[in-house]
Each structure stands twice: as C-alpha cells, then as structure tokens.
Automatic annotation (TrEMBL):
One of its GO terms (biological process) is chemotaxis. The keyword Hydrolase applies. Keywords: Chemotaxis, Hydrolase. It comes from Pseudochryseolinea flava. GO terms for molecular function: protein-glutamine glutaminase activity. InterPro entries: CheD-like_sf, Chemorcpt_Glu_NH3ase_CheD, Cytotoxic_necrot_fac-like_cat. Pfam families: CheD. This is Chemoreceptor glutamine deamidase CheD.
C-alpha cells in the first residue's frame, strides 16, 4: 500500500491502494476524495479560502479553487466523472483568533465548491479550536482523525 503525505498546497491522486495523510491541520483543510467506480482516490492540503489569491509555486495549489480544480482534473483524466465522487474533509479550526477566522472561510469555501460540482460530502470533522491529523485509507474509505487536544482517533 502506498503512502502519500500531503504537505501544504499539495494535491495527489492514486488508482492503487493508498493512505493519504495530512499532518497538523489547523485552519487548513485536508480534503479526501474517492471514486469507487474507477478506484481513484486523492487528497489535497488546502491553506486558503478561494477568495484569497495565492501564487502557486513548484506546482502547488494554496487556495480552495485552485486545489479543487487540480484535483478534479486528475480524476477526470483518470476516467472519473464528477458525479461519482465522494468527499470527506477535515480541519478549518480557529487556531489564531486574530486571523479573521480563516478556518471558517476555508470550510465554507470547500462546501460551496463541492456542492456546486454536485460532489457528495460523506463526512466532515471541521471547526473548533484544535489542530488535527488525518489519514484516509482508500481501500476501506475510512478517514481517521486525531485531534491534538485529546490524542484519540475518530473514525469516519
């Protein structure tokens, strides 16, 4: 089984059994998408909401719009249609109160984009004030989320 660690701004997909991991999700979003029809799964570690422009460096996508466009492009190139995708996402915490609650803006932006593309949202663990680490297992569609405050896993 392959392991993909998604750093900030990274978007990856894989058609083989994989685990996608995002460490230290504060206001960032860890988005995990799967197409059970094609077997393709993928993820993105998103830093900023869509209304914040971020220059992509080294092929990275820092805002919601850019990350989702790149992720969907990978799925379509692999033979998926957007109506067969399922999404799970994590993060969007209000870690730094002086930041204008970027986490809440990230959550809203991701939901708006997924709904606009008719992507089914199968699970989410968002908001609050604690950072999270997320592991998505493509074989089982299981999302394991560990919060920093209690160091215990939730399974979605």
């Amino acid at each position: 089984m392959r392991t993909h660690v998604l750093n900030i701004g990274e978007v990856k997909t894989d058609a083989t059994p994989s685990i996608f991991t995002c460490f230290g999700l504060g206001s960032c979003i860890g988005l995990f998408v799967q197409d059970r029809a094609t077997g393709i799964s993928g993820g993105a570690h998103i830093l900023l909401p869509e209304d914040v422009k971020a220059n992509a460096k080294d092929g990275k996508c820092y805002n919601v719009k850019d990350a989702l466009e790149r992720l969907f492009m990978h799925f379509i190139r692999g033979g998926s249609t957007l109506d067969t995708l399922r999404a799970k996402f994590v993060g969007g915490a209000n870690i730094i109160t002086a930041s204008g609650n970027v986490g809440e803006k990230n959550i809203r932006s991701v939901i708006d984009h997924l709904v606009a593309h008719r992507i089914f949202i199968a699970a989410l663990d968002v908001g609050g004030s604690s950072s999270r680490t997320a592991h998505f297992h493509s074989c089982t569609s299981e999302l394991r989320v560990r919060t920093a405050e209690n160091n215990q896993y939730k399974i979605f």
